[in-house]
Amino acid sequence: MHGSKxxxxxxxxxxxxxxxxxGVGAGDLVDVDPYDGGRLPEYRWRQAPEGLATRRxxxxxxxxxxxxxxxxxxxxxSGKRVAYLYRVDLAVTKLPMTxxxxxxxxxxxAARQTCPRCRRRYVACLPLKTLESCLECHDGTPADPxxxxxxxxxxxxxx
Length: 159
Description:
Blueprint: H1 4-15, E1 42-44, E2 52-53, H2 55-60, E3 63-64, E4 72-76, E5 81-87, E6 92-93, H3 99-113, E7 121-122, H4 135-139, E8 148-149
Parallel strand pairs: 1-4
Antiparallel strand pairs: 2-5, 3-6, 4-5, 7-8
């Protein structure tokens, strides 16, 4: 756009006529208002159009965003909570859990659930940042035996 066309378009934007609109079709484009600070279109809770879903909704469908950026946002609790919305037609299937991923996840969880003093692995994560141990080691509060697994026996064999 050159000259007067550009000025007319700029006046429309300043007047708020050109608002952000979102299309949910595969070939639709997203128009962005340059004067709104680059914000995404905003919908209230349960008011989002068909074809948009949150990450949690995509996960329930067996999908993930697949590297695509959110195209809108949904607010709830009077604007205190925001959830990003992604296009369902651009989502791809979730990656399956491999044995290596599962082993890495178990190792990370074991570090959060194992007491460094008594070496018991609890079902829940321990307050290691504040107490640095389980409650039983910290102040003597007895733990329910069903809430932990005992550490493996030490290997004392010569061979």
